[in-house]
Amino acid sequence: MENITDLLLKVVSGVATPEEEAHARRLMATDQTIRKEYDELLTIYHHPQFQPGLDNQELDRTFQKIVNKRSRVKTWAMSLAAAVLLFAGVFYYFTARKVPFSRVTATTPSQVAIKLSSGEEVVLTDSGMVKAGSALFRVSGGTASYQVEGTGSSNALNTLTVPKAKRYSIQISDGSILYLNAATVCKFPFIFQEKQREIYIDGEAFLEVAPDPSRPFLVQTPSGTVNVLGTSFNVNSYGPLTVSLQNGAISVNSHQQSVLLKPGQETVLNEKNGKLFVRDFDPDQRFSWREGVLHFDSTSIKDLAVQIERHYNIQVFIERKEIEKVEFRGIMEFDKPISKFLHNANAASDSQRFHWELDADGNLHIR
Prior knowledge:
This protein is an alpha+beta fold. The protein contains eight helices and 24 strands.
C-alpha cells in the first residue's frame, strides 16, 4: 500500500490520478489527522518562497523564512521539528522523485488562477480573453466562460484557485454556473464525461446546475458527496460540511449516511460521528456572501478572526485568550475598510470590549 504522505503529495502537486485523488479525499473525510497533514502540505507547496532546484543552503534559508513567518501565527499547529521533517519531505518528493513542479512564478496568492491538467498555470484576469491550454476564456466583471478547441480530455481535471479577499464565478461546459467564495479551490474538466458530470470543491461555492437527467451532477468535497440533477444550492467545506438547498432536490452523502434535502433545508456534518443532521436556514443570510456580505449571530471573536483572514487577506493575532469567546452580532461588508468593520464589531460585542490595531505590515492585533 502506498504511503499516505506520498499519496497526499501527489494530490497537492496535481499529479495524482483521478482514482488516487478520490481515494485520498475519502481518507481525509474519515480521518482528521490525514486532513490536517494535507492542509499543511498544501500550505508549504503553495508558499511563494518554496521552489524546486534550491541547493541545501538556499533550502535552509527559505525554510527558515517560512517558519519564522508562520511561527507568528498562533493557530499554526506544527511543532518546529515536525515542520522541518515535513518541509524536507516535500522538497525531497519534488526533486529526488522528479515529480513535476509546475507553479508559474508570475502568479501570486492575490490572483485567481487556473492550473491545467498539463501542469501549466494561467492567471485569469478581470476582463478580456485568456488562452489556457485548449480553452479560450472570456472574462468579464469577475465572471468567466470558455470554449474548448477540439474534443479535449473528459478525464483531465483543471484546478481553479480563488485566493483570499477574492470571489469569482465561472460558467462551465454544461452551462452550470459556479460562484466561488474566497480561499476556495475547484477542480473540473473542460469537457464532462458522457454518463455523469463531476467536480471537486474545497471551500465554499454556490452552484446553479444546468438540468440534464441523463447525466447526474456530482460535487465531491473533502467530507462527502452531493448528488444533483438540476438545482441551486450552496456547499461550504471551510469547516464541517454544510450543504444548503435553494431550489430543486439534492442528495448529500457522507461515509456514514445519506440525506435528501428539500428547498429551504440544509444539512451539516457532525465530524465526530460522521452523521448528517438537517435543519432549516435563512437563505438571505446563507447566500449573502455572493453579494459581498456576511451575517454573524453570536459569533466568537476567535471564529470572526478566521473570516477576517479569509476575506481581507490579512493575518490576525488574538493577544488575550479571554477575548476569544467574546461574541459578536452584525454584518461584514467586503467592500468596506476593515477599520470600519472592527469599530462596529467592537461596539456590538456582547460583553467586554477589545482593542485592535494594524501594524506596519498590515497584520491585525486584537487585545
